[in-house]
Each structure stands twice: as structure tokens, then as C-alpha cells.
């Protein structure tokens, strides 16, 4: 766990967590940070905790003492969001101190009670404030459904620091550099990619609410954004707001100037056409990614689809339906409400077709509204004329995605 000073009376405690499935689902290849913040006036508040899963609260208490904060002196626990990666330490804290007040929204209060049995709670609404003394005044601003309904921002008015919890967060472990002005260009790129992974895995389903939360942040004259995961933005908080606006666009059909091939193949017939499509993409100088299902992790799959302006779905028919690992992947993308992508499908069939029908059902059921080039299906191995149709489809996709590219 690291301790950093953000401003006089405001500290950050951060720890890297690795080898966990985030939310019990997402395989986060590069880990994630959990950030907690302390605001000290005459009274002391802690905003979100930094243990959860199998964390050790004593580490938190020791680090608090090292920045001169006796854990027993904490008066307020600000629960911006009840998900246990931020709140999982509350029951343990109760064992060392009895007289603290939890501050959260009404929706968080119900969960704080049901998960931890807590009842000494002050429920706050938009614009409510808490004066800690010594000029430290916190205000509270609900941002529901980013990604849980209970979420709120806490804003420290003196330093104009926005404690945004999950909003403006990113996956990815942090090394020595925790502030935006310290990050090397490689680290900036790393956190952008990890931010996209985080957005796709955690936030994408709630893109309309995320957009509202971005607008709310813009009304607060923020100087520093201090999220619950990832770097703190003190030099240029507008950068992460712009990034999040772009990620929201990705979820609604835009993307980087790249194509992702989401593919699977039973006996290599569809794979022959995948290789041919790759040769076309190389010839045309188009950047592309390949996701072989079911080998790819769900986290990486959803993230890569989210950021791509064009998608090639390459999958055969299997038992009258779409090749199951690819169907499962597309269903997950649909559940994440990743809509409006430019796309093209091809695939082989043997004794029966049926993949197209299931693809249409997945798109319809999830209201994905993807803009597909006419599919190419071939019986058994692709022949010369089939490959020519694949080439035409790939070229049409390259053309179609141009209007969707956002840098
Ligand atoms: Fe970082 Fe939604 O918890």
C-alpha cells in the first residue's frame, strides 16, 4: 500500500490487487488499484476503503497511522458506492471503533444495512454538505447507475477535488507514478487501454448514465479527479473526462481505426477464410485484432470489441446455430449494450446452415443495431469464389467503418 499527499489535509492510500476476478467475472490481466482518500479538518473522513476481497485491514490502519491519522479518530466513512471493493472493510472497522457515521445515498444505505448490518447512517442528497472544519467542506452529488444505483461523487470545495469512486477509473496496477503529470507516454497509453478494458467490463451497460455523470462533473469546476481505481488527474482532469466521453462513443458504435476479428473454427474451414481476410486487411494497411473464441478471456474480448470501429464475425454453423463460443461472446457484448458497430460475418457450414438465424436473434434480443455487410456462407471449405466474396465483404466493411472512427 502506498501513501500520497494530494493537498494539505488530503491523502491517498492505494494498493494494487492482482490475481482476482473483478466482480467474480473479469480476468484482469494487469491487475487493478484500489484507492482510498482521507480528508482532515477538525474532523476526519475516509472516502472509500482499500480492502476488500481478502485484504488485510490492519495494513490500512498501519498506513493511516503513518500519515498521522489514528484510525480511531475517523469520524465519517463516506461510502460513495457500496460495492465491497470499496466498502468491504466496514465490519472490521466496526471492531476497533464504535462511534462513526456512514455517509451515503439512500440506495447505498439500504445495502450498507443489508450487507454489514450498519444503521448509523446519514443519507445525503444532491448538494448536501459536510463541514469537517479547517476549510474542508465536502459536498455530495449522486450519479446513479455508474454502475450501481447507489453511486455518488464527493467533492471537496477548498481544493476542488472530485472523489469519483468508480467513475473515471481504470484497471491496471500502478507503479511509482500515481498522478497524471508523472506518467510516462507508455504509462498514459497503458492506462488508456486499461481504462477501455475497465469501461467495457464495468461501465458499458450504463453508458447513458455515464454520460450524465460526465456532464455533472463538468458543472463542478473540478481541479483534481481522484477516482477509486487508477491514476489521479491533477494536471489535466479534462483528459479523463474526454477519454470517458470517447469510451461512451465506442459503446454506441464508434471506435478506433481498427477491426477486430471475433472468430472460432471447428475443423479449420472458417479459419481458411479468416487467414484470407487477414491478407486483405494487411494489403489494405488496416490495423486488426484477432480474438479466437473460446480461448480469449471475456474481459479482453469485450474490451477489444468496444474499442474497434469494425468487427468481423467469423464462425461456422454448429448444430443448426452459430458456433457456440462466438454466440456466447456476442451475447456478452450485447448484454454490455455495445451497439451500432459496423460488422461483417462469414463462416462455413456442413450438413446444415443456421448460424445466420441465431446471429439475427442475438442482435435483435440485445437491441444491438449493428450495421452488417451481407454475410458470406460457404459449404465446407471456402472455394476461390467464396474467398472473393469474403474479400468484397472485408473491403465493404473497411469503407463502412470510416464514418465510425473516433481517434
Ligand atoms: Fe470499484 Fe463498483 O466498485
From TrEMBL:
<dbReference type="GO" id="GO:0010181">
    <property type="term" value="F:FMN binding"/>
</dbReference>
<comment type="similarity">
    <text>In the N-terminal section; belongs to the zinc metallo-hydrolase group 3 family.</text>
</comment>
<dbReference type="InterPro" id="IPR045761">
    <property type="entry name" value="ODP_dom"/>
</dbReference>
<dbReference type="GO" id="GO:0016651">
    <property type="term" value="F:oxidoreductase activity, acting on NAD(P)H"/>
</dbReference>
<protein>
    <submittedName>
        <fullName>Flavorubredoxin</fullName>
    </submittedName>
</protein>
<dbReference type="InterPro" id="IPR029039">
    <property type="entry name" value="Flavoprotein-like_sf"/>
</dbReference>
<feature type="domain" description="Flavodoxin-like">
    <location>
        <begin position="259"/>
        <end position="398"/>
    </location>
</feature>
<dbReference type="InterPro" id="IPR001279">
    <property type="entry name" value="Metallo-B-lactamas"/>
</dbReference>
<dbReference type="GO" id="GO:0009055">
    <property type="term" value="F:electron transfer activity"/>
</dbReference>
<dbReference type="InterPro" id="IPR008254">
    <property type="entry name" value="Flavodoxin/NO_synth"/>
</dbReference>
<dbReference type="Pfam" id="PF19583">
    <property type="entry name" value="ODP"/>
</dbReference>
<dbReference type="InterPro" id="IPR036866">
    <property type="entry name" value="RibonucZ/Hydroxyglut_hydro"/>
</dbReference>
<dbReference type="Pfam" id="PF00258">
    <property type="entry name" value="Flavodoxin_1"/>
</dbReference>
<dbReference type="GO" id="GO:0046872">
    <property type="term" value="F:metal ion binding"/>
</dbReference>
<dbReference type="InterPro" id="IPR016440">
    <property type="entry name" value="Rubredoxin-O_OxRdtase"/>
</dbReference>
Amino acid at each position: 500500500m502506498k501513501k500520497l499527499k494530494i493537498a494539505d489535509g488530503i491523502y491517498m492510500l492505494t494498493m494494487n490487487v492482482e490475481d482476482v476476478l473483478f466482480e467474480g467475472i473479469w480476468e484482469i490481466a494487469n491487475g487493478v488499484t484500489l484507492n482510498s482518500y482521507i480528508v482532515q479538518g477538525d474532523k476526519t473522513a475516509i472516502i472509500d476503503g482499500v480492502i476488500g476481497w481478502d485484504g488485510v485491514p490492519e495494513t490500512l490502519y498501519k498506513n493511516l497511522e503513518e500519515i498521522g491519522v489514528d484510525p480511531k479518530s475517523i469520524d465519517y466513512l463516506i461510502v460513495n458506492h457500496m460495492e465491497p471493493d470499496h466498502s468491504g472493510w466496514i465490519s472490521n472497522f466496526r471492531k476497533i471503533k464504535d462511534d462513526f457515521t456512514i455517509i451515503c445515498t439512500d440506495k447505498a444505505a439500504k445495502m450498507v444495512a443489508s450487507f454489514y448490518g450498519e444503521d448509523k447512517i446519514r443519507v445525503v442528497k444532491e448538494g448536501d454538505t459536510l463541514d469537517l472544519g479547517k476549510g474542508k467542506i465536502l459536498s455530495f452529488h449522486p450519479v446513479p447507475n455508474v454502475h450501481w444505483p447507489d453511486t455518488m461523487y464527493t467533492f471537496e470545495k477548498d481544493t476542488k477535488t472530485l472523489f469519483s469512486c468508480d467513475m473515471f477509473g481504470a484497471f491496471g496496477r500502478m507503479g511509482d507514478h500515481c498522478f497524471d503529470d508523472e506518467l510516462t507516454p507508455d504509462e498514459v497509453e497503458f492506462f488508456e487501454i486499461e481504462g477501455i478494458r475497465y469501461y467495457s467490463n464495468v461501465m458499458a451497460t450504463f453508458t447513458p448514465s455515464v454520460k450524465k455523470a460526465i456532464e455533472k462533473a463538468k458543472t463542478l469546476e473540478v481541479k483534481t479527479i481522484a477516482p477509486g481505481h487508477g491514476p489521479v488527474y491533477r494536471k489535466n482532469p479534462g483528459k479523463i473526462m474526454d477519454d470517458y466521453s470517447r469510451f461512451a462513443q465506442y459503446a454506441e458504435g464508434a471506435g478506433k481505426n481498427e477491426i477486430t476479428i471475433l472468430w472460432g473454427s471447428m475443423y479449420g474451414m472458417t479459419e481458411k477464410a479468416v487467414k484470407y481476410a487477414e491478407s486483405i486487411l494487411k494489403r489494405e494497411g488496416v490495423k486488426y485484432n484477432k480474438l479466437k473464441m473460446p480461448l480469449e478471456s471475456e474481459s479482453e474480448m469485450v474490451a477489444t470489441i468496444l474499442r474497434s470501429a469494425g468487427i468481423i464475425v467469423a464462425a461456422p454453423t454448429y448444430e443448426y446455430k452459430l458456433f457456440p463460443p462466438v454466440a456466447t461472446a456476442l451475447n456478452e457484448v450485447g448484454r454490455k449494450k455495445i451497439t451500432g458497430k459496423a460488422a461483417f460475418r462469414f463462416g462455413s457450414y456442413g450438413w446444415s446452415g443456421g448460424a445466420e438465424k441465431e446471429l439475427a436473434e442475438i442482435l435483435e434480443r440485445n437491441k444491438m443495431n449493428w450495421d452488417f455487410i451481407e454475410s458470406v456462407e460457404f459449404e465446407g471449405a471456402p472455394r476461390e469464389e467464396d474467398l472473393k466474396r469474403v474479400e468484397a465483404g472485408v473491403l465493404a466493411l473497411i469503407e463502412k467503418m470510416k464514418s465510425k472512427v473516433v481517434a
